[in-house]
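Input/output pair, single chain:
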Amino acid sequence: MKKNKLLQASRWVLYFMMYSVIGWLYEVFLEVVVYRWGFSNRGVLFGPYCIIYGVGALLLLLTLGGVQKKKLYLGRLYVTPVFVFLGIMAVTTITELIGSYIMEAVTGGWMWDYERFAFNFQGRIALNPSIRFGIGGMIFLYLLQPVFEKITGHMNRRMTYAAAGLLLILLILDSIITMR
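Output:
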């Protein structure tokens, strides 16, 4: 039983890092291609990852993974995806809000400003990004996560432990270096 828990924990580390890197790529893409502001490291740490995306992904798996698999109907209308979408919006918005307060406490500020969007709260969260996170979360839960589960499912224990351990060490070292 302990081996299965360690294997699952190692997979969660891999998922965390995969989604943190995807989040960084998304942020850089927006900054360089969409907004044409030029490149900057969009993560708090040195490496190419936004850990808030990794945290958000794990929270979505923990809170909505079970809901996603249920068949919920309102009369004859299949509504599971609607509930999942709204759940994603809620979880990611709360995560972003809490993340902004943590980032402000640690670094003196947070890395985004939603003042220009309607329905924002202190520039920390806003409806427009929440909807985008809802769409991104649907892509994550329904398309990416099944692929990542297949990939990690094909990895043997030793490879899974080694990859997760190496990435965790890298993240810890990056955190130590950044905090200095």
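The chain has a mean pLDDT of 91. Strands lie at 73-74, 77-78, 120-121, 125-126.
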